[in-house]
Each structure stands twice: as structure tokens, then as C-alpha cells.
Amino acid sequence: MASTNAPKTWGVLAQYENTKILYNACERVRDAGYSRWDACTPFAVHGLDKAMGLRASTLPWYVLLIGIGGSLFGLWFEMWSMGYDYPIIVQGKPLNSLPAFVPVWYEMTVLSSCLTVFFGNWVLNRLPQYYHPAFKSKAFDRVTDDKFFILIEAADSRFDLVKTKAMLKDTGASHIEELED
Amino acid sequence: MASNALVPELPNDPNLRGDIVLPDPVEGRELLVRGNLSFHDITEVVLAVNERPLLKTPAPFVFGLLLASSMLAMFGGYVAFLFWEGPGIWGNNNPVAWAWDIVNFVFWVGIGHAGTLISAILYLFRQKWRTAVNRYAEAMTIFAVICAGSCVTLHTGRIWLDYWLFPHPSQMGIWVNFRSPLEWDVFAVSTYFTVSALFWYTGLVPDFASLRDRATNKIRRFFYGALSLGWRGSTRHWVTYERAYQMLAAFSMPLVLSVHTIVSFDFAVSQLSGWHTTIFPPYFVAGAVFGGFAMVQNLIIPARTWLGLKDLVTVRHIENMNKIILLTGSLVGYAYGMEFFVAFYSGNEYEGFTFINRAFGPYSWAYWTMISCNVLAPQFFWFKKLRTNMGFTWVIAAFVNLGMWFERFVIVVSSLHRDALVSSWDYFVPQTEWFFLIGTFGLFFTCFLLFIRFFPVIAIAEIKSVMPQADPHWPGHDAAGDGAHAKGGH
Asked: CA of B461: which chain A residue's CA is closest?
């Protein structure tokens, strides 16, 4: 931003007052063919992912993969340490006493899966991201309170400052603002 | 959602309307939030306590925090004494090798279970009322597990060798014994703590963002800004976030059942009469949920009044939790009865003696305290008048907490003090253990009061999403125009 004199337009922000208008507006933006856009809301609005045409999250697949890996590692480690690396008979149980290994095996499965869920959630969402052009907007402060927003990026191939703003106005936006990068 | 003429008009006073018991609606369910609050009102009501300037912290709060932190400081001194002298400062004797250390551990771990039950199991069962109490209960879980962890790490004797609990390579070449229930416990409790903390933090992020966006000074903006990770409520984020939340709930549900099951294995896998029973896992889990909900009641009934949250945590929430207390209390009562019956039916003299000794031996006072607090006290909740009365609920919940502490005392001490060798029988009397128990309460309440002061006590983003105007297809949007206020609720 410092290198160029004129700040570049990052995109347009439109504010909506309730979930119904937002929902219908999202369907309009989706059907107009935009791809680099987003809807920001104070809470997860039920069905809005469909109205935006978003695909389901891929997170469960990573969790499945790493969860299975963590589970197998847990069992392997118990069998290796108890039965091979330092075999020792205690409690009169066989070296590889599978039933007695179940609790730790289970906890390892849960732990590896939950760590994947937690970190995967932030990685897939590219958070933490402490800077975003929308944060410069005063109106956007209420995105975590009671207002609803649609952001359309200038990088979208269908973006046209005048036409995009006119379309957003037509969807019932109560406030429209240009965002600079 | 249509207004019902039979439902009485609620008064306008937010300190009154939350306590009024409404008749069950003919269709659908009672609204979760009272008083036609808008989304913005919710944000204001919940964050009011967090956004007070530090110097204007209410005096009773400061007093409470000072009291709790002085108890915590005392605990620090006690731990130093324990470190120096060793567990000889306790009353533990030869047959009673486990006493208050383990009693307190099981007590605190059990308290935590209600938090996970509310956050995970009620979530998966689509019990939407949980959104008003889950944050609070999850915080309780985390602090309770910290207390439990401090009890169990301090009971080992040579505290500086506690890392031996975890598998680690060393010059001795040996690993921990994965066949031992005590080792299972290490994994269960540490996994439980980790997962609860991750779940709690995930839920907090959108609410930290609310605090960030409303911050009026730089310190607060930086503090909550850092914690909220730059959350901006993007729907592309919500899609993954919601799925992550759901998965954490799905993993927590069997996890919470497994934790107290494994805690019960510490006892049930041994050969001691009174401990060696197959009923222990379900009985421990029911007891944990029972005691945990009682603790939630003890904490939330004063808090909803002092923090002005009666519109969000209504009498309906308190009543629902009382119903769970009644159910789990009756399950626990059934388990006490069944234990006794099986001791008789097994025909095993030692088992039979242990139970007769429990009820009529030297520790009978503890046994009957447990029975009256855990089995009899919750039965009052069969009456709607009583289970919707705040003061009465608080008192019964306090009795339940007392009873659940005694349950663990009865299980641990009364089973140990008269073992199979008559010459080694002894009677356990606590020495300095009171300070141990009080100290963990100091730790718990210090954490809890700081949580109330600085973190949103109610999951704002979640409670907004269960309000009728959150639904894009809510008919009221057309009637209300800008949707600022929900109309036609009651």
C-alpha cells in the first residue's frame, strides 16, 4: 500500500439488516456467477452455505486419515514397548495383552483426531489472519454483533465497480462501501 | 411461533421475567430467550460484565476474588509443605493408603463431566437450550479437571518425578506399564483436559471477536484481537468451523463416558471387595453427571442474578437441569441398591461383610450422609414447584455436591479400612487434608471468577443462532421489517 500512491480497490462491502434479505442476496450473487466473494455474519446462518453455493468442508477427511494414523500408532507403541523393546511380565498378563491396551489405544485415537479437528479448522480457514481489508470499515465492526455483510472482491473476473454496486443495492443492502487494500 | 392467548404476558422487568414459569406451549417449544431481545441486546447483556473498566469492578466481585486467591495462596504454601514433608502430613495409614487425595481427585473429575455432557451430548441431541449454559459449564469442566490434576499429581509422594507417569525414553530403558488402570487414567484425564480446552477455545473465538470489535481501548483490542485470531464471521469459515465443532462434540461424547469409566477402573480392576464390581463404570458416570450438574446449579443460580442474565438462563433451563439431576440421582440410588443386592446374591462373605460394614460399621455416618444427600434429596425435584424454585434448587444442589464427595469417601475409605486381614484394620482420620480440599476450591474459584470477568460467560454466537429471527425463513422478518426485534414470540 505504501509503494503506490493511489490505494487499490480491494472490493465492495454491502450491509444487510436481517438474515432473510442476506439469504436472498446471497442467492442473487451466487446466480450472477461471482466466485471470489463472501458473506460475513455474527453467527452461522442456517442454510446460508447452500444459498452461497459452497461445498461441504473437507476437514472430516483429514480427521479420518490422521485419526486412523494416531490410533494405529497408539496401538503399535503399546505393543512395541510392552512386548518387544522392554518385555516384562506384570500382573500375570501376557506381553501383548490386547484387552488391557484398549483404554490407552482409544484415548490416542480421540486425542489425535481432536488435535486434527482443532488445528485443521484454523489451517483450512487460513486463520489466524489478523489483517483483512474489511476491518478498516467502521460498519464492519458490527459483523460480530447484529449486522450481516456481503463482500465481493475486485479480483473476481465478473467484478465491475458500478455494476456490482448497483446489483448489491438492488438486493436490499442498507449500506454499501468500497474497500481499499 | 404463533402467539398464544393462553400464555401469560411477561412483565417488562428483566430481573423478574426470567423466573416466571410458563405453561408448556400447545405447539412447538417455549422461546429460549425472553423479553423480545434483539441480537444487539444479547451482545450488550452478555458482554456488559467483560467491558466494565478494570477500576470499576464491583466490590463484591473483588472481595470474592481476594477470598478465592488467598485460598489459592494458602494452597501454594500447603503444596510447598507437602513437597518438603511428603504425604506423611496426611492421615493415610496402612490399610487406608488412598484417602482424601484420591477422594478429591475423583470428586473434581466428576464435576467436570456435566460440562462435557452439556457441551457435547446435549449438542448432538439437538437440545438447543444448552447454548445458554454450555460456555459456563465448559469453563467449570476445565477448572475442575485442573483441580483433579493437581490432586492426582500431588498424591504421588515424590512429586518431582511425576513425569514418570508419561511414557518417556530414559537410561532405565523401561516404559510405563500400559496394562495398568492407573496408566489408563493418565491418558484418560490428560486427553480429557486437552480436548475440553480445545473445544472451549473453539467456541470462544467468535465471541472474542465480538469483544475485539467493541473494544474501546488499545489493550482490550489487542488482548481480544490476539485471542480471536482475526475471526470475521465469514460463512466460508463457518462451514468448516461448524463441522469442526460437530466433530469435537462427537469425539467428546464417548470421551466423557470413557474418562469416568477409566477412573472407575482404578478401583474395579483391583481385587478388593467393595471395589471389584462390574457396575462401577456406569455407576461412576451417572454419579459424575449428577454431581457436575449440581455444581452447575450452584454456580449459575447466583451468576444469572448478579450478571443480569435471567432472560438468557431462564427458569426453564434450571428446571431442565434439575430433571437431569433427578434422573441421574435416581440412577445412582439404583446403583447403591444393586451393589448391596449383588454383594448378598454373590454369596461371597468378604463382599457381604464390606457392604454391611459400610452401612453399619465405623463409617456408617459417611454412608448415611451419602444416601440422604444423593438418593433422598433429589427426589424433591419430582415436584414442579420445587424444581422451579431457585433458592430451593441451590440448597439441594449443595447437598448433592456434599453427597457426591461423601460417595467417593465411602468407596475409597470404607472399602480399605477393614481389609481381609483383621489385624491390619484401622480407622482413618484426616490430619491436614482439609487444607488440601479448601486449597483446590481456592484454585477453582480463582480461575472461575477470572473467567467470568474477562471471558464471555454465554456463547453469544450460539445463542443468537437459536433465536427465531436467526432463521432466514422466519415469517416474522416480513412483519418486523428490519428484524431488529422479534415479534409475536410469546
From this structure: A43
Q: Are residues A114 and A78 in the same domain?
A: yes
pLDDT digits over B36-91, tens only? 889 999 999 999 999 999 898 889 999 999 999 999 999 999 999 999 999 999 99
Domain membership of residue B483 (yes or no) is no
Judge if ipTM > 0.90. Answer: yes
Q: Which domain holds residue A135?
A: 9-56+130-180
With beta carbons less than 8 A apart as the criterion, state whether A173 and A17 touch.
no
Contact A114 B198 (CB under 8 A): yes
How many domains would you assign to chain A? 2
For residue B241, give the nearest of A68, A46, A121, A138 by alpha carbon. Answer: A121
Contact B236 A38 (CB under 8 A): yes
Chain A hits for B194, Cβ within 8 Å:
111, 114-115
pTM of the model: 0.92
The tens digit of pLDDT for each residue in B251-309 reads 999 999 999 999 999 999 998 999 999 999 999 999 999 999 999 999 999 999 999 89
Residue of B33, B168, B236 to mutate, testing the A interface (most A Cβ within 10 Å of its Cβ): B236
**Residue A41 in domain:** yes
Q: Domain residues for B442?
A: 38-466
Residue for cell digits 474395579?
A: B268
Residues of B in contact with A134 (CB under 8 A): 232
Domain stop point among A124, A142, A166: A124
Q: Taking CB atoms and an 8 Å limit, are B235 and A120 in contact across chains?
A: no
Provide, as residue numbers in chain B, all residues whose Cβ is less than 8 Å from the Cβ of A118.
198, 201-202, 244, 248
- Asked whether residue A71 falls in the same domain as residue A118, the answer is yes
Rounded Cα distance between A117 and B60, Å, is 40
CB A16 within 8 A of CB A150: yes
CATH number, domain with residue A46: 3.30.70
CATH number at residue B83: 1.20.1630.10
Asked whether the beta carbons of B180 and B136 are under 8 A apart, the reply is: no
